[in-house]
Amino acid sequence: MRDGQTYCYYLRETVVGDGRRPARTPLRAAQEQAGVPAGRWLGHGLAALGLTPGEEVTEAQLRNLFGERGRHPYADRIEADRLAKGVSRRRRRSRPAPSDAG
């Protein structure tokens, strides 16, 4: 496996009960077909990330976290919010100021 692509294996096979996820099948639909429950966020640090315990883990969140080498699960939303507030495109992936994090 190539660096940064491990999550693809995870999304194709592991999250659907070590089966094989059919191509172009949405994650949740593949989990339902395999009889596997959706992944849920758990842990003590979730509040610091703005995640809710028990919230369903989405494919986009997995891609951000694993495929993008540790980006925040809501990185896309955070970037969009920062752009809407006038942060330049060059700085949009920079660490947000504490007042921008909410």
Topology record:
Blueprint: H1 6-12, H2 27-34, H3 46-49, H4 59-67, H5 75-84
Helix pairs in contact: 1-4
**Rounded Rg:** 16 Å
| Secondary-structure element pattern, one letter each | HHHHH
In terms of DSSP E residues, the strand content is under 5%
- Helix and strand content put the structural class at mainly alpha
Helical percent range?
25-40%
Quick one: how many beta strands? Answer: 0
What's the helix count?
5
> Low-confidence segments, ≥5 residues, pLDDT <50?
98-102
- The end-to-end distance, rounded to whole angstroms, is 36 Å
What average pLDDT do the residues reach?
81
Principal-axis shape equals: globular
Q: Major sheet, described briefly?
A: none
Question: How does this model look, in words?
Answer:
- This protein is mostly helical and 102 residues long.
- Helices cover 37% and strands 0% of the residues.
- It is built from 5 helices and no strands.
- α1 packs antiparallel against α4.
- The N and C termini lie far apart (36 Å).
- The C terminus is likely disordered.
Can you tag this structure with a few keywords?
mainly alpha; 5 helices; 102 residues
Give a nutshell description of this structure.
With 102 residues, this protein is mainly α. Helices cover 37% and strands 0% of the residues. It contains five helices and no strands.
